[in-house]
Design a protein that fits this description.
Length: 483
């Protein structure tokens, strides 16, 4: 089929379209909506709402419109279906109309547009992957870069074949650096994301059992993460965690120059010392090229020393001075993985409900261990561990026995965690088992006391944030303090 260009009238020549969204609820005036077909729903069903909300345009599949978007005829705002396969003019289309642009595959079209847009600019692109810590690392790397360089970063955890192209479309000529998170659902996905973004710098944080259920083995996960180092150019940089032997081995799988970080004596950016100040952050001493540097960050938990080291390494390969790096670490932006919120009855909640794996849960327990008062670990199921599920929950239960005063185990693997905690020496009366989140809420409402610290953590799919919402302080007393 010969595709012909759509002729734009002068009134459309300078039209601004963006941001790109795939959720109709996030459409704002001027947005580009991409109507995706998923397992549970189809974006074409919501086109009437998209037009009403003010989207400038939408990428649509024409064969879906009749079946799924028949209610478009009831929308008051004008819209037009544009088919690039035919010669068309927009001269008669009102400037305030929504353009429904017909494409064979909306997702593929979005990716092609993102590739074209990426090629128009020359920022240094930093890709970040790993089993845990991608989003926190992305935030801190972007904070360091933005001290001296105009920086674009992925929003939230935009790290997929859908959301990474949307981030790329936010690039402008002003951006000097783009910091992009790269996740994976299957082997080959990170390599595909790298073809879209063309990173010159790659960071691999670690390799763990997350996604083991889908990929089958730790080795398969390591191979999938290694797709980022393998995609880097020879004049680029590969930044690797020297303390994770699977990550360190990726040095042999990249053409790029390698910079390592960690505790290991052979690490290029070496952690010499870390001091935790509990919920007030950490202080670390870092050695590089024969000199040591003392830095502080409000990131909570000793495990975030790795987050800071990765950001330091990124700053160094970009040529930033240590003052800029220190400034970025002191103001690391959003800490999406862990929040400190006031709880009911004078308690403090450590909200780490975004996701969970054995490594990140044990790290969160270490944060809880450094708090005062009674320490309560409210732990839900860790999903996608496959054959390692029982062992992973046993590891977490045993760790809770040494770092918490009380374990509240929630969900299908609660008994596995509870038995491991009991075997590790935690008294039976300090181990509480709940079948679901509602039962945990009811129990904790009766159980918590002033001064308690509660760590609440579980995989995204088990929605532990509902427990946080139920226990969070929402009222203020006469003095204006949260109660």
């Amino acid at each position: 089929m010969i595709r012909q260009a759509v002729t734009l009238p002068p009134s459309w020549a300078n039209a601004q379209i963006g941001p790109v969204v795939t959720d109709s609820r996030e459409v704002t005036p001027g947005s580009l909506f991409v109507a995706l077909t998923g397992e549970r729903t189809d974006g074409h069903r919501f086109l009437a709402d998209v037009v009403t909300r003010g989207a400038a345009a939408a990428l649509v599949s024409p064969e879906k419109l009749t079946a799924l978007a028949s209610n478009l005829d009831t929308v008051a705002r004008p819209w037009r279906l544009i088919e690039p396969a035919q010669a068309q003019t927009l001269a008669t289309v009102p400037p305030d109309a929504c353009l429904l642009i017909a494409v064979d595959d909306p997702l593929f079209a979005l990716q092609r547009v993102a590739v074209y847009h990426r090629q128009m600019f020359t920022p240094t692109v930093i890709g970040i992957t790993g089993s845990v810590g991608k989003t926190s690392t992305k935030e801190v790397v972007a904070a360091v870069c933005s001290r001296r360089l105009r920086t674009l970063k992925s929003q939230r955890s935009f790290n997929s074949e859908v959301t990474l192209p949307a981030t790329l479309l936010g690039l402008t000529a002003d951006h000097q650096v783009a910091v992009l998170e790269m996740g994976m659902w299957a082997a080959g996905e990170i390599r595909f994301l790298a073809t879209l973004a063309r990173p010159q710098i790659g960071i691999v944080t670690n390799v763990g059992p997350s996604h083991l259920e889908r990929l089958g083995s730790i080795e398969a996960i390591a191979n999938a993460k290694a797709e980022l180092p393998e995609s880097l150019p020879a004049d680029g940089w590969c930044i690797l965690n020297a303390d994770d032997h699977r990550v360190a081995a990726m040095a042999s799988r990249t053409a790029a120059r390698v910079l390592t970080y960690g505790y290991a004596p052979n690490a290029d950016v070496r952690l010499l010392d870390v001091v935790s100040h509990g919920l007030y952050g950490i202080e670390l001493t870092v050695g590089y090229e024969g000199q040591s540097h003392r830095l502080t960050t409000p990131l909570i938990g000793r495990h975030h020393a790795y987050t800071a080291l990765a950001a330091i390494a990124a700053g160094l390969v970009l040529g930033l001075d240590w003052d800029a790096i220190a400034e970025g670490l002191r103001e690391p932006g959003e800490q999406l993985r862990l929040r400190i919120v006031p709880g009911q009855h004078g308690t403090t909640i450590i909200d780490d409900t975004y996701n969970a794996a054995p490594l990140s849960t044990i790290a969160a327990l270490q944060v809880l261990a450094e708090t005062k008062g009674r320490r309560i670990a409210v732990l839900g199921e860790m999903l996608e561990l496959g054959a390692a599920s029982v062992e992973g929950h046993q590891q977490v239960g045993a760790a809770a026995a040494t770092m918490a005063d009380v374990l509240v185990a929630v969900g299908r693997q609660a008994h596995t965690m509870a038995e491991a905690a009991r075997s590790a020496g935690m008294p039976a009366e300090q181990i509480l088992v709940c079948d679901n989140n509602e039962a945990a809420i009811n129990l904790l409402n009766r159980y918590i006391q002033p001064g308690d610290h509660l760590l609440i953590k579980g995989s995204r799919g088990v929605q532990m944030e509902t427990i946080v919402a139920a226990l969070q302080a929402t009222t203020r007393n006469d003095t204006g303090e949260i109660a």
